[in-house]
Amino acid sequence: MPRTNPAPPVSHELMKRYEVIAQSLRERAGAGPLGPLDPFELARRLGVVIGYSRSLEVKDWSGMSKPLPDGRLFVMLHAGQTPERMNATLLEEIVHHVQGHTPVQIGPGGRSEYNEAEEQEARFSAAAALLPMKAVAQAVLRRDDPTRFAALHGASVELFEMRVKTLGLWALYKDRSPLPEGVR
């Protein structure tokens, strides 16, 4: 499938931009700075119409969106994906909409072309909205159980670990030696 506008390397400036987008989404959802964000509550607040389908394999697509004539967004989610993947997908589609990204064209063979830079912005911003920077850093420093932390935030462990890596906390995360007595 043809790509347009290749994604730039993930720089400090880009990461700051993604964090700002994420914070805006969290505010619009009524989520606090550290706690879980419910993507479906955000969708409700934004008037997003959600549909579900199983027409293709999950590996082929997880969701797509299209603006409706009345200005609202219609998001089609694959019904066969995990709730964690569905949360991330819904947020990614919302990011595409609020950032004014060009909708991906879908043809008989799947996506016909897409903007890699816009896909990167949606993916990283959605991850940052689900897993806020400060909350992830605190979890790493406290050596919280990643499975439990990710579940609390409606995310997969894989997405949590991606956030840990992009925040530059991977070495600290991998060193999960016990904390000294009384430190938590």
Structure explained in plain terms:
The chain is 48% helix and 15% strand. With 184 residues, the chain is of the alpha/beta class. The chain has a domain at 3-128: Arc Repressor Mutant, subunit A, CATH 1.10.10.2910. Strand 3 (63-67) and strand 4 (73-78) form a beta hairpin. Helix 1 (12-29) crosses helix 4 (116-130), helix 3 packs across helix 4 (116-130) and helix 6 (146-152) crosses helix 7. The longest helix has 18 residues, at 12-29. The termini are far apart.
- End-to-end span in angstroms? 49 Å
The order of strands across the largest sheet is 1-6-5
- Which CATH-level-2 architecture of the domain at 3-128? Orthogonal Bundle
Strand content: 5-15%
At the first level of CATH, the class of the domain at 3-128 is: Mainly Alpha
| Total strand segments | 6
- Looking at the structure, the CATH topology of the domain at 3-128 is Arc Repressor Mutant, subunit A
Q: Based on CA inertia axes, which overall geometry fits? A: globular
Number of helices: 8
Q: What proportion of the residues is helical, as a percent range?
A: 40-55%
Please mark out the parts with pLDDT under 50 across 5 or more consecutive residues, or reply none: none
What does the main sheet amount to?
3 strands, mixed
* Helix/strand/pairing category: alpha/beta
Average pLDDT? 88
Rg over alpha carbons:
17 Å
Helix and strand sequence: EHHEEEHEEHHHHH
